[in-house]
Amino acid sequence: MDKNKYVLLSSVSDDGYVDLNIWTRTEKQRWLFSLFIGTSALYASRTSMPLVIPAITKELNLSKTDSGTILSSFFWGYTLTQVFGGYLSDRIGGHKVIIAAAIGWSLVTFWMPIIITFLPKESMGVSFIVCVRILHGTFQGVHFPSMSSLTSQNLIESERASFFSILMSGSAFGTLVTGTLGSFVLDYFGWQAVFYTIGFLCIAWTLFLRYYVVAKDIRRESIGWIVNMVPWLFSIPSTFLGKWLSEYLIRVGYSVTTTRKIIEVICLGSQALALIAIGLVTEYQWALVCVSVAIAATGFHNCGITVNPQDLAPKHSGSVFGLMNTIGAVPGFLGVYLAGYILETTKSWVAVFQATAAINILGCIVFVIYGSAKPIV
C-alpha cells in the first residue's frame, strides 16, 4: 500500500487515527519547497551583515568593538524568542508565526542600509544599529520552532524526520547564496545593494508563502462544504435518468428482471470504479469527481433493487421492503467499525474505499446471478 496516497482532505497518522490537518502529497511538496526557500532566505538575511561589516566598518570608521557588538547583538534577540515562538506556534499555528516573523526580518534586512546611512555616526547611531540587530534576531528566533510545530502537526510521524532535515539544509543553501550572489553584488554595487537585493528576495518569498501556499490551504479548508453538498446534487438528476432508462429498456422489449440487473450493474459497477479511482488520485478536484460519480450512481439504485420488492411481492411489498431495508441498515453501524478496523490496521483510507468497492462488486455479481423480478407471492 502506498502510504503517500492521500484521499480527499484527510489522512491517517501512524497511530491509526484520521487527522484532517495532514498534508496531501501535493501540499507536502508545496510546503517543502516553500519552507526550504524560506529557510534559505532566512540564512541569507542573517549572513548578509557578516558579509558587509568590513565595508561598513571602513565607511563609518567603526572600531573593532563596535563591529563585533553589531554582529553579536543579533543572537541576543535570537535566543529570547525560541521558546516563545514554539509556544505561540502550538497555540495559533506555525504558519501564522512564520509569516508574521518573516515580514519583520525581511523588512529589517531591506531597510538596514537606510537605517545605517541616515543615522549619526556617533555612539548613539551604533547603539541604534545594535537595537535593530537585536530586533532582527528576535524575529528570526521564532522561525525554526514554528517550522517544527507546523511540520509536526501536518505530517505523519514517519515522514517528519526526513522532511525537517531537508528544510534544515536550507540554512547551508542560504549561506551559499550570500557568499556567491551577495559577494558579487557587494563587489559591483556596494554593501547597500546587498541588503536591498536579499531583502527584496525575502519579501518576495514572504508574499509567495502567504498569498499562494497558505492561501491554497485556506481554500482547501473553506471548501469542505462542497464535499458535503455537490456530490449529492448529482443524485437527483441521476434518479430521473435511471427512471427514464428503466422505462426505456422495458419499452423496447427487455424483461423487468433484465432491466433491474442492467440498472444495478450501472449503479454498483460505477460506484466500485469510482471508489477504486479515489485511491489513485491525489488532487482534490478529481477526488470530488469520483465521490460525485459514486453518489450519483445511487440514483440508479432507486430504480433497481429499491423497487424490487414490488416486483417480487406486489401484495406484500411493504413487509418485504421493510425486511430488505433492515438488512440494508446493518452497514450503517457495522461499516463504521469495519472502516475503523481497516484504518487502524492499514493506516490508509485507500484500503477502506477498496474494501467498499469489493463489497459493491460482490453484491453486483450476486444480484446478476440470482436477482429476479418475477412475482413469488
Automatic annotation (TrEMBL):
SUPFAM superfamilies: MFS general substrate transporter. It is found in: Membrane. The chain crosses the membrane at residues 31-56, 68-85, 97-119, 163-186, 193-213, 225-242, 262-280, 286-308, 320-343, 349-370. Pfam families: MFS_1. Residues 31-377 form the Major facilitator superfamily (MFS) profile domain. GO terms for biological process: ATP transport. It is a multi-pass membrane protein. GO terms for cellular component: membrane. InterPro entries: MFS, MFS_dom, MFS_Na/Anion_cotransporter, MFS_trans_sf, SLC17A9-like. Keywords: Membrane, Transmembrane, Transmembrane helix. One of its GO terms (molecular function) is secondary active transmembrane transporter activity. This is Major facilitator superfamily (MFS) profile domain-containing protein. The lineage of its organism: Eukaryota, Metazoa, Ecdysozoa, Arthropoda, Hexapoda.
